[in-house]
Amino acid sequence: MALPDWLKPGRGLPAAVRTSLITIAAVLALGYFLQFAGLYESGEKLTATVEAGSLKDGIVPLTVTLRLNNHDDEGVLYEAENPCNVFRWILLDPERAFVQSEAEENCPDVHMEQYIKPKHYLEQSYTLEIDARRLKTGESYVLQMRFWGEELRKEVPPLLP
Question: DSSP states of 64-111 as a string?
Answer without folding.
Answer: EEEEEE--SSS-EEEEESSGGGTEEEEEE-TT--EEEEPPP-------
